[in-house]
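Why does this matter for the project? Reviewers at the last site visit asked to see concrete outputs rather than summary tables. In response, this paragraph embeds two records directly. Each consists of the residue sequence and, immediately after it, the corresponding structure tokens. Nothing has been edited or filtered.
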Amino acid sequence: MKVSVIIPTRNRLPFLREAVASVQVQGYLNWEAIIIDDASADGTWEWLASLRDPRIQAFRMEEHRERSAARNRGLRAAQGERVLFLDDDDRLEAQALLHLSTALDQHPDAIAAVGGRLDFDDRGTRHKCGLFRWRVKRVFWLDVLLGFVPGQVEALIQRAAIVSVGGWNESLSVGEDHDLWLRLARVGPVVITPGIVLHLRMHAGQTRFTVARHVEQQFRTEFVSRLPLGERTLGERLHQAQRAAIGGSIAFSRGRCRRACAFFLDSILKAPRSLISPVSGPALLSLLARSALGMVCGRRGMVFFSKLKARLRSNSYFGNCPYYVAEPSDARIKAQREGKGLPVAPRPR
């Protein structure tokens, strides 16, 4: 089953090279890449025109339209039954498409499969996010309302499902993933699967979370108001619980651990079912435990544990993560077109 990887890009040619290379070395062979150049002025279009890989199609938008419009343009051109939207500054794990496709093959009624990610930056920081111990299929809108919104890059989505909800909202430039998942999660269940599928680059120029938060809360309020009467009370409680959890996260980031504990406990009381969610429960309990630890140890104790955790990470598997970005040879491209098996690029070590 063909997978379409859609990459919107604008003036990030060095990052784009890595993103494209991470698609070209995928262990899953039946893919196409649709790259939408959103009126770049840094030589991106010239580089795209020079690519010799027949599995890659490139389109140029003459006027800057923002990434939601670029993604919809790629969606219209996609031929795959499943789509993944890869940002131009991120990179796929070598087995990402195979891992996510296998999950959807095993759960054909699911609208999407979601994996975990590794956040990284140029200073060598590595942080694993969204990892789960086992594969689970869930009615997903409950978790989205509680605040779990996977990045679109971590999800392989059934093309028919995203087309059925109208694609991306082109009027949005921040929080557009929250808007999409609130609409998409009502269509059908989602498979949450263990394992890292994405390397997400942290760098200057990304949207600040505080800017998008107000917009995201508006989406949730509107979503709850449109729920059927039988589900609206539950939706309201989940939304209240999510807002309390955000208050706790803000208080914790400011070192106000006692206040953070109060927020997290309030979140649990408003929606006790969040604790049994394999998605939302562990995250909420972890935040509550860290806040309680902060109350006991104080600010200096938390600083000590943060430094210890950072040191342990620096010595772990993810402390040094070089990445293979060489473009594939003509022989490799020809062999993949003929359907021959090829060795997969090695995992970063």
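We now turn to the second protein, recorded in exactly the same manner.
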Amino acid sequence: MSTVNPLASRWTDAERRALRRRLLAWYTKNRRDLAWRRTRDPYRIWVAEVMLQQTQVPTALPYYVRFLKRFPTVGALARATDQAVLKVWQGLGYYRRALNLHEAARLVVRDHGGRVPDDPQALARLPGVGRYTCGAVLSIAFGRRLAALDANAVRVIARWLAVREATDAGATRAGLWRAAETLVPDKTPGDWNQAVMELGSRVCSPRQPNCRSCPVRGLCLAFARNLQEKIPARRARRPIPHIQVGAGIVWRRGRILLCKRRADAMLGGLWEFPGGKIRPGESAEECIRRELREECDLAVTVGRHLLDVTHAYSHLRVTLRCYHCRSARGRAKALGCDATRWVRPERIADYPLPGADVRILEAITRAARK
């Protein structure tokens, strides 16, 4: 496999200076007025960068505003409970980001006096802080000369260099990081990193890039070779599995059973209507009865079907087949979960729920109004 050469071997120093000058001038004129660009507070920049992982700007923006209204400082976040953090994050997805950010805030208070460290090694030791987050926060908030390579920046630099190898391959990605580091200027490194990402978001898009509007197209090897639609290349992905799950809305004396997912599981810390994966040859009703025994040591009678909910995650699709159930007696034990709780329907919305369970709750509420 060929490797990605540093930019120094592709361009002259004069060409690199021209690239920086043209892109930064474009960014100054065309940058979006986003909330996290109006501050140099490293905490607020950090929150934004965590939210923007795997999430588009329009989706993240209202969550960013709500999150900082509730947790305006590192200390406020550190003092919060996991449940409060997850509730504010609800709907944004990738909940491990929120839990890592929460734990990192506690460590910043404990080990760094409540100040986000400006040292790359110290920041990188915090939970959830990878190479991209470290580079973005430190370059933007502290002016550290570090690269920040997100999906947009990967695509932009791969096109600039006409990289034909799969950009999600380890060797290629390492070469792109080396290339990115050669471009970061000594002055305004944060503006530079944001300019590259802004170009990827608004001009150098994954499909049908608007090359005619690109301020640096004259320095882009993919454009010169008419390869922009073929770059970046990615390795073939496996088909996304689709699993069927039985979910029980278990009633007792006007309350519904919620179970808290294990902290180390997918969607850990969130509350859900109990259930599990339907086994081959098993009906949804049989699955619900079995899962309630295994998860809560609870015998239930499965009643009428409420609805089916299909939800897509990054690595799988899940269809929840939801049924009303009754449980007359017995304590719900936390055998396959971290906690159980009987909750009045009107109070369930107070709990942090996965997206699919929010839709189940909406169906329960609609049915109750009829």
